[in-house]
Amino acid sequence: MPADHPELAEALERSRAVAGGLVGLALVPGVGVAVATARGSFSRAGEDPCRLVAAIEEAIHPRWVTWSGATALTLVRAGVRVTRGWNLATVHCLLAGGVDADPGRIWAHVQGLGLDKLPQGGPRDLFSSLDVDEGSLDDPVTPDGYLRPDWVSGGWAASVVRLCRWSMLAVEVARLQQCALEAIASRPAATVIARSESTAELLCAEMTVDGLPMDRAIAEQVVAGFIGPRSSDTAMAAARARRDEAVLRYAPPGRAVDLRSPAQVKELLRALGLEVTDTRTARLRGLDQRHPVVGALLEWRKAERIATTFGYDWLDEHVGPDGRLRGTWSSCDGASGRMTASGGLHNMPAELRPAVVAEPGHVFVRADLGQIEPRVLAAVSGDDALARATLGGDLYAPVAERLGIDRQSAKVAVLGAMYGQTSGNGAIALRRLTGAYPVAMAYLDRAARFAEQGRDLRTYGGRRIRLAASGGEAMEAREDRKKVAARGRYGRNAVVQGAAAELFKMWAVTVRERSAHLGAQVVLCLHDELLVHVPTEHGERTARLVSTCLDEAARRWAPGTAVRFVADIRVISNWGDAKGTSRPRVESDP
């Protein structure tokens, strides 16, 4: 126990706080800090609350229970990083689905209270104060069992007494959430997933504060190559006109076209003999051999995206004086459960990747999961035949051989099954797929059927996918076949994509924990790709560690699975380096 905090040591002993045990935490710099277990609590006013948390973390490494990710951000900004967490908002989203997770909803959910009767905040009037028995305002719970709106909106931070009550309430909610997770039928790993998701929230706080290393000079060179150097508004407008002219020179004489209007672009293409259903980039790429306007339009779009979203203003706003690109990270997007980030971190153009450069004395370890969704499908469905196809580096080759078709057709069939593309050219291959891998296909079909009926789904790890609608909406969906079909496509993909997100986050937090002693930082989590910033002397060792962490994460996520997960892992100096300086291929063992 902390020697410089004898009263804290005594309190922790009294409350029986142990390594990995739940410890509620509420803190406000300048106000104080409170920690609690199911058996007792400890609070202190005034002094730096983060320093006290650091002392407890060093002593016992508990599982910190917090109401939201804001607490983790406060700690990281104060230089305190904790190992384990239980984020009540994150676990609530896992249990209830969606992204609404304020303390009032969290409390109502675990107490089985109706959300339609949640107390509303706002100004109090004479009549409400006269005819409502509100009880003690220092008690966060109203007489009818809900949390008080003023506590939900931040009133818990008003005093150390309230901090203490808030931390105790956090432990109570965490234990109720654990019971709810254990009660989810056929989801034995739900509690493990909840811990992983909560730890991912700690990682998000760290990535938010740390940022992504970036060479601003290289970034400005890339931007200048598309839109020209920094200059006056007049010069920038002239550069924009020149970019437009590279496309408009193909337009018929006298035709005015706004390239920023999809409808007008579609009319331009029609006038040039190119009939398209839409003007999306993926649609246009197949037409670039038919007319030079298509190639010019695709290049224009790259430049326009740089100019409007990733130009000089973006660099000025998001790249700090320390050369780190920063945005706000979230551990769950609310739909598939994937991690997301603001500030362009999740949709940065490939052309800017060479500007993401490791700092002097450091390298990146880049790790990209291979064919992750079909491998996840094999694991979550329990299809032994599909699991055997994962044992090689390329899943699609044995699938193609089993189906008697070429590899590309096999890939289209597998992806089509997961994304709901069950008709058209891939229909014949899909029927063969159903015959060869009936268990996996039945898993997808069941998810689609439930979604079509407007029934909620759960991912392999227990995340609720909200699909249930009100009676009017459900009736409308039944009357509209397109809506029913769309809902079914969404359902069959959501159960796979959501499970893949669970595995990815478990991998990311395992890398975070196992590589910390090497001075490594996970600085980017992009869909199925990790980017780890590490001292150069530990680059090779970290690369090997990232691979073994994938094995460990897979075992924890799906114990006993025979599925093999693979990753392309490279040691690189910048994110745009396709080959890397070493370890061109690393695959996890089955």
Would you mind describing this structure in some detail?
The protein has 590 residues and is α+β, with helices and mostly antiparallel strands. The chain is built from 24 helices and 16 strands. α23 (481-514) crosses α24. The protein starts with 5 loop residues before the first helix and ends with a strand.
Features:
single chain; 590 residues; alpha+beta; Nucleotidyltransferase, domain 5; Taq DNA Polymerase, Chain T, domain 4; Alpha-Beta Plaits; 4 domains; five-stranded mixed beta sheet; five-stranded antiparallel beta sheet; 16 strands; 12% strand; globular
- Overall structural domain count: 4
Rg, nearest Å: 27 Å
What structural category do the secondary elements indicate?
A: alpha+beta
| Total number of strands | 16
Global geometry: globular
Helix content: 40-55%
CATH class of the largest domain: Alpha Beta
Rounded average pLDDT: 87
Number of continuous helical runs: 24
What CATH architecture of the largest domain do you see?
2-Layer Sandwich
Question: β content, as a range?
Answer: 5-15%
Seen as an oligomer or otherwise, the chain set is single chain
Query: Which parts are unreliable, with pLDDT below 50 for 5 consecutive residues or more?
Result: 123-135, 470-478, 581-590
Largest sheet: 5 strands, mixed
Determine the CATH topology of the largest domain: Nucleotidyltransferase, domain 5
CA distance, first residue to last residue: 41 Å
Strand order of the largest sheet: 3-2-1-4-5
